[in-house]
Amino acid sequence: MDMLTQALDRLFRERFTPDTIREIETGGSVETLWSQLEGGGFLDMLLPEEQGGAGLTMAEAFPGFMAAGTHALPLPFVQTVLARAWLLTNGIAPPGGRIAIAGPEVSRRGDGSLTAQGVAFGPVAEWVLAGFEGLWVLLPVAAAQVVAEGVRGSLFADFHWASLPSDALSVSHQHVGTSPAVLAATALVPLLAGAAARVLDMTLAYVGEREQFGRPISQFQAVQNQLSMMAERVWAMRMAARLAFHSAGHEPCEARVALAKARCGEAAVQVADIAHALHGAIGITEEHALQLYTRRLREWRRAAGSEAWWARKLGAAVLASRGSALDFIIANTQAAHAG
Description:
Layout: H1 3-15, H2 18-25, H3 31-39, H4 58-70, H5 77-89, E1 99-101, E2 106-108, E3 114-120, E4 127-132, E5 135-140, E6 145-148, E7 156-161, E8 169-171, H6 180-209, E9 211-212, E10 215-216, H7 221-244, H8 254-279, H9 290-302, H10 307-320, H11 325-338
């Protein structure tokens, strides 16, 4: 583990405890915690050194992003880091504050109103980066009508702007390949992989301690079978997420992101289901920390396009390549290696 990831992991472990997460989920203030991330320079890790950043590539930043998922960070840390680098690449000085990124569930009406649905970390964001039919824009949350999901502990929200706010930051996308929707999915895959890894660790610890018929339930073949299925999916998520971040710069490949979001989304449900099956009833209680991570798995899976949505995008890309599926895989794997 590199020094930056160690510093992030220590900060997340010490400051974002289960009790802190519960407090934020119920409307507690995030300002002090966010100022620590900002004051430590972590938000600019992808920016060039000459512009005050750490000059990391996406691949180098990946372990720190995954640590945010491991600790179920209730703040748009990864989203803000990616958005700040994306904005700077597009010639816009990033504003201060927490940035959420909307997925493909956005719309722009003829009257000029804008709507973004199912935005992860929406309730704790100050800005929303979104793409609307020829318009890529950073929108202030303060000017929006915000509708929370209404589920206890949810960090999802819908946003509606009656018109384009005067302090919105518009981005020209004539020469840039990465859309906000792709960036939104990119930000979620390390979080999904990290949360799944934590859920696996918690489940392994529990089945090793819980006894039935005089021995730990981890010794039962049926439990071992479930654990092996769970571990396979957790490591597949990690590999898929890392592939999405296999880039020397700040521009993710849409095909690799589509693959990662589809694979992580599909596996997230299975990992959560197995974890709760092996924990039994205790895993769904408010007092137990397991539900903090499995709820995030289900939320992040739904955000920025479901696995079905990204699978269709991936299938369309394969068909457009006019080669075989194997040719498509080899080409994108080589591109990732070269990056």
